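pinned: reference chain
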Amino acid sequence: MTDCITKAEFAGMIAGAAASIRANHAMLSELDCAAGDGDHGATMLRAVEKLEQAFGPGGPEDLKTCLKDAGWSVLGVDGGASSSLLGVFFGGMADAAGNDITGMFEAGLAALRKQTKAQPGDKTMMDALVPAIQALRAAVDAGKSMAESLRDAAAAARTGAEATRNLTARYGRAKFLGDKTRGHVDPGAASISLIFEGFDQGFSNLKGEAGNA
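pinned: its C-alpha cells
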C-alpha cells in the first residue's frame, strides 16, 4: 500500500480526535488529580479546539500550512507542558507534510524529542506516542491499508498508556511524588491514546461516508 493522505483525510482524523477528547475530558482531569492540578482535561479540550480551527472551513488548503498553524495555535494554549509539547508535535509534522503520513508522524516525534528527554518508561505522553508511531510504521511497511495501520497505531497507544499505571513518574510535577504515582495512568499518555483512537475513528468515518456517497 501507499501511506498517502490528503488534507481532507487528515481533517477527518482531527475531527475524530477532537470528538474522542470531548467524550473523555472529565476522565482526563480525574487522572490528573492524582499528581497534578486536575485541569488536564480542560487543557486538552482547548487544544483540540485549536486543531479543529486550523483544519476547519476557510482555513489553508494545503496540509503543511494547516499543520504549522495548528502547531502554533496549540502552543498558545495555556495549560503547561502537555499543550506545549502537543503543539511542537503537530508543528513538527509540517516539516514532512505531503503524501507520507508515517513520515509526518515521525517528523513530529523528532521535533518533540528536541524539546524533551522523556522516553517510554518515564510515565509521560511518550509512553503512548512512541509505540503508536512505531506500530504505524510497521503496519505501513507490512503493506497494510491506511485504516488497518491507524487501527494498529491506536491499539499500540492504548497499550502504552495503560502500561503507565505501573510506572513511576520521572518528569514534570508528578516526579516529586515518586512511587505515589504508581497505580495511576499518566494523563498525557491517556490523551495521546484518545487522540489516536480518534484518528482511527475519524478516518474510518470519512471513508465510510465516501463509500456511501
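why pinned: The radius of gyration is 16 Å. Residues 7-212 form a domain with the Serine Threonine Protein Phosphatase 5, Tetratricopeptide repeat fold (CATH 1.25.40.340).
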